[in-house]
Amino acid sequence: MQLSAFPRVALAALPTALEPLPRLSRHLGGPEIYIKRDDSTGLAIGGNKTRKLEFLLADAIEQGSDTIVTAGATQSNHVRQTAAACARLGLACEVLLERRVTDKGVDYDHNGNVLLDELLGATVHHRPVVDDLDAEAESFVAELAAAGRKPYLVPVGGSSPVGALGYVVCAREMVNQAFDRHLTIDHVIVATGSAGTQAGLVAGFESAGAPVPVTGICVGRPEALMVAKVETLLRRTWDYLGLRGDPPDGLVQANDTFIGPGYGVPTDAMIEAVTLFARFEGVLLDPVYTGKAAAGLIALIREGRFRRGETVVFLHTGGTPALFAYRTSFQEAASAAST
Question: Which one, of 234, 337, 318, lies nearest residue 43 by Cα?
């Protein structure tokens, strides 16, 4: 199976770095922690969705589309990167932003990724919470088609077999980087929400003959639902790649302990994790995805799940602009810590 057989446009600065985090590793007293810097993919502050968009927008262009439609929560990193990719490729971009978080004030509604969506030229349509955001976007696509446009739907998070190819590429990239530095990767930790990043990683490692365990730290869905969603997309991606048989059972691991009150809602563990990464390594995480995934990584190390002598890779999926939407949460935590 050759990935070169699939249409692809160049959007990301690849390969992204695989870097050690020595000070944080020493502080936690557990395994050697490495970070895969997919926050540095280069398109409008970077992030994991850029890898997916290389394949998704190539597919859109091949189909003759002139307008890209996608959707996400108000502070969606995926929407921001889609808007940036459309700007680079000269495609119109229509986005639906769902108000999943309603109590974070003006910063959340207008700063961070929302500011960048508008700066990048996307046409933004706000929506209340809906039962199925992808279905809402499909309905909008039908409206545009009826009006004579040629729309292409990029699903929420870019999570489809086409989009997941981006993380098949990433898994193979990590295998090559580990080989070059004589490194054994014992485990990968990643935030998991729309399923495409985790499904692509698992398919990529397995198809490369390097079955590295990948644990998704859930940011919104309960563990059982998240595992089922990733497994479904993994099977679809496996078929899309033309791999023989079915993926082995038990490949998908998820942990929903670190969601807190809900998607996008800050937790003390997330704020601690964001602060530790910043102050020990100068690495900025985000409050919604990587902050909660890092909280999971830190807790699992403290529980003894990962130990000295092992190597754990934390996949940084980006999201830094969302920090500016959560200014008051971090200021309140700092104020409480000083009293």
Answer: 318
214-218, strands of its sheet edge to edge: 18-20, 32-37, 311-316, 187-192, 214-218, 252-255
> Token pair for residue 249?
């059972």
As a whole number of angstroms, the distance between CA 87 and CA 69 comes to: 13
CA distance linking residue 33 with residue 24, whole number of Å: 8
Tens of pLDDT, residues 168-204 = 999 999 999 999 999 999 999 999 999 999 999 999 9
- Alpha-carbon distance of 269 to 265, in angstroms, equals 12
| Sequence-separated (6 or more) residues with CB below 8 Å from residue 80 | 44, 45, 47, 113, 116, 117, 120, 321
Q: In this predicted structure, what is the pLDDT of residue 339?
A: 64
Give helix 161-180 / helix 223-241 axis angle, nearest 10°.
90
Positions marked catalytic = 76
Strand order in the sheet with 151-153: 123-127, 92-98, 67-73, 151-153
- What domains appear along the chain, each with residue ranges and CATH number? 3-47+159-338 (3.40.50.1100), 49-158 (3.40.50.1100)
Contact 264, 100 (CB under 8 A): yes
Note the pTM of the prediction, 2 decimals: 0.95
236-275 per-position pLDDT tens digit: 999 999 999 999 999 999 999 999 999 999 999 999 999 9
Peptide bond into 15 cis (omega under 30): yes
